[in-house]
Amino acid sequence: MAIPIYRTAVPFLLVMLISVSCKEHLGSPYVQTLLRIKELLNSPPYLSSWKTGMDFCNSEPTATLTVVCYDKTITQLHIVGDFGAPRFPMNFSIESFVGTLVRLPSLKVLTLVSLGLWGPLPSKFMRLSSLEILNLTSNFFEGQIPPTIASLQHLQTLILDSNNFTGRLPDSLGSLSALAVLNLRNNSLYGSLPHSLGDLEALRVLVLSSNNFSGDVPDLSSLTNLQVLNLENNALGPRFPIVGQKVERIVLRNNRFSFSIPEKVQTYNQLKFFDISLNRFVGPFPVSMFSLPSIAYLNIAENKLTGMLSESLPCNDDLYYVNFTANLLTGKLPRCLLSGSSKRVVLYAENCLATGDENQQPISFCKNEALAVGILPHSNKQKQASKVILALSICGGVTVGVILVSAFYLIVKNFLAKRAAQKSQPRLSEDNASTAYTSKILKDARYITQAMKIGGLGLPSYRTFSLEELEEATNNFHSSTLIGEGSRGQMYRGQLRDGSYVAIRCPKLRRNHTTQHFMPHIEFISKLRHQHLVSALGHCFEYHLDDSSVSRVFLVFAYVQNGTLRSWTSERRRQKLSWAQRIAAATGVAKGIQFLHTGIVPGIFANNIKITDVLLDQNLVAKISGYNLPLLSDNMEKYSLQNFFRGSKELKKARAKHQDKLDIYDFGVILLELITGKPINSRNEEDAVKDEMNASITSDDSSRRSLVDRAVRNTCSGESARTMIGICCRCLLKDPAERPSIEDVVWNLQFAAQVQDASQSSDGSPISPLQSSRMKPIITK
Ligand SMILES: *[C@@H]1O[C@H](CO)[C@@H](O)[C@H](O)[C@H]1NC(C)=O
Ligand SMILES: *[C@@H]1O[C@H](CO)[C@@H](O)[C@H](O)[C@H]1NC(C)=O
Ligand SMILES: *[C@@H]1O[C@H](CO)[C@@H](O)[C@H](O)[C@H]1NC(C)=O
Ligand SMILES: *[C@@H]1O[C@H](CO)[C@@H](O)[C@H](O)[C@H]1NC(C)=O
Ligand SMILES: *[C@@H]1O[C@H](CO)[C@@H](O)[C@H](O)[C@H]1NC(C)=O
Ligand SMILES: *[C@@H]1O[C@H](CO)[C@@H](O)[C@H](O)[C@H]1NC(C)=O
Known about the structure:
Layout: H1 10-20, H2 28-40, E1 65-70, E2 73-80, H3 94-101, E3 109-113, E4 118-120, E5 133-135, E6 140-143, E7 157-159, E8 164-167, E9 181-183, E10 188-191, E11 205-207, E12 212-215, E13 228-230, E14 235-236, E15 249-251, E16 273-275, E17 282-284, E18 297-299, E19 304-309, E20 321-323, E21 328-331, H4 335-338, E22 345-347, E23 352-353, H5 363-373, H6 376-381, H7 385-394, H8 402-421, H9 439-443, H10 450-453, E24 463-464, H11 467-473, E25 482-486, E26 489-495, E27 501-507, H12 515-525, E28 536-543, E29 550-558, H13 565-569, H14 579-599, E30 614-616, E31 622-624, H15 647-656, H16 660-676, H17 683-697, H18 701-705, H19 718-731, H20 742-761, H21 769-775
Parallel strand pairs: 2-3, 3-5, 4-6, 5-7, 6-8, 7-9, 8-10, 9-11, 10-12, 11-13, 12-14, 13-15, 15-16, 16-18, 17-19, 18-20, 19-21, 20-22, 21-23, 24-28
Antiparallel strand pairs: 1-2, 25-26, 26-27, 27-29, 28-29, 30-31
Helix pairs in contact: 2-3, 14-16, 14-20, 16-19, 17-19, 19-20
Protein name: Protein kinase domain-containing protein
Region (Disordered): 757-781
Signal peptide: 1-22
């Protein structure tokens, strides 16, 4: 038996304190940099908490001010000033400000919003080459967006909304291969859009609204992940933009589009929001748009669209806003628009509809107007001359004058010439809008969630504990405090002097080692701090007297007291979680897994997480316990210090071998239980429920609902049930490669929460584009 010699181990502890506690004060250069930034911003009130000697890394993050550190460097800086902050006075120098900022070269996320910064973006700025998210909304930056911005190769999100940037968009933007979000709303940019935009294959969100862009939108059909296209308030046109099949939101409002709506829009099965109002679109309005499977908002007001509506047209139940005011539509209003939800807004004045009310034009008005504009769209759309002739003859009954014919001839000729000029443009392929499993689609798209980065909130800093402290907390490791024992060691529950409870793990050590041997592991464990993990608070070593080798290691974790997730969903012991709480718990678990995979290097995979390993705290926040602790794994070499530098390669390798997908499967099993409320203890039970779920995906709402736990069945929204069941089934796919990535899982869950939330508050307001890109994955139907 080893004899504790902790009293003589002070030198060791000191060494450890210095080398281990990662969350201690940053080296002073960073402190000086931050204080200098404060000074350059004229010490504004929102930075009053920044003081000399302050521990920036452990400061409480707020909505307006956050500093996040990782491994002794600053990786995130968020400063949000007062809304509508005025421009800094003339003595402000953006050069010195940025010159100071680049002394934080590890910055990955930078938010400088409403600070009054002005001047051109200095080229020095590009030294922040680790940047992944940049948000400079609401400042007074001016001049061109520098072409050198392309050197920020890791950039995933670029938001320069509401500044005074001017000039053309640099062509080099197209080489930002990781870019997923590009928001340049409300600047003074002009000119045609560079063709290289079509190379941004990772792009999900493109917002260029409220600028002065002109000309045709480049071909965006290879942006297969594009979900949001917002070009509102520009001078773009005349052709309708070509976008990929996954688009959810198209906003072309108030531009100069004047050709017809391509037939392809009828295959956009994920399109929810369509606003092409205030343009000069001509030609037939594709009435099947009313019944697109996802459509909820349809605004084609103030164009010159023609077509005959009929009472029997079908429309999607989710459609809550339809505006086709001031077009050239004839026929009768579809009955389905008028029945259904009373909240639905349907606006249709100034057409030639047979409604009987006076705000409609006579039919002849629409016929004449249509004739004036009605030929061009066909020339644009049709590939064969025969169809053009057909279109002409459809205008029947009216003699098409010689002038019209020759004008038409000129237009067609012009069009063909233009077309020849752009011969190298790829043709859009009319792939059928298959909404089969979308795991592949989302697999490659990445997004760093803020939550993941601001992971370890609200925990005390990691520290070393003394053995006396732990003995006191556990009453000398009294058997009554033992809460678990297994082949890997014991676990005790203790109460510290400050009253807080901790769980103390005492892993079995196979051999004696020196403290040096354990250092990398301890350093690694000290980083395992996340809102959704049962996090490490510290450790303690006990030594052998004779050779000072380590005889025991104690790892101290937060104690989570509110029971396992199972006890809240599938056991009768207590009140059950509501549907929304279940989604929140699942999201927590997914985020915890995401952190284990990507939030630390090397990532921790194959954690074999069970629903009984998920604990809930007093606020019902889910926390994963019993994950794969490195100190306990036999494969210790992996955690040697050298390997820390190979983290991202490790992650790639793990992903290539689908190691990450093992946890995805286990997560799917947890979801099964969460959804159905039935404890799943065997493979057979698992398979049976899984089969039912798979069958229900293609089935109707009520049969899906019947799978949901009776206790919450009546409060869950159909859409959120569908999303949860869909993602659950995908997690449980046999082929690991087919299972979704953890990022997809998180998105889907957040979407489920969002639709559930919307259904509870019955608030049908449209979601902002940015949010929608983050929250809304593509849902399998
Ligand atoms: C700039 O001018 C303001 C007053 O207009 C002053 O308070 C501030 O200290 C000056 N800043 C610098 C960096 O000189
Ligand atoms: C950028 O900043 C604005 C203003 O604070 C905020 O609304 C927006 O969510 C931010 N975007 C991101 C991606 O952080
Ligand atoms: C657009 O930017 C200007 C400053 O450039 C700002 O005053 C205005 O509020 C912004 N408008 C919107 C709608 O964001
Ligand atoms: C934007 O820049 C133009 C010159 O490019 C300038 O005339 C205008 O005043 C600026 N607007 C703001 C709000 O700073
Ligand atoms: C937009 O650009 C056009 C030329 O392309 C110009 O005539 C017009 O004045 C510009 N509008 C604004 C608001 O800058
Ligand atoms: C929709 O219709 C209403 C009522 O006719 C009209 O006032 C409004 O401007 C229209 N909306 C748009 C976006 O054009």
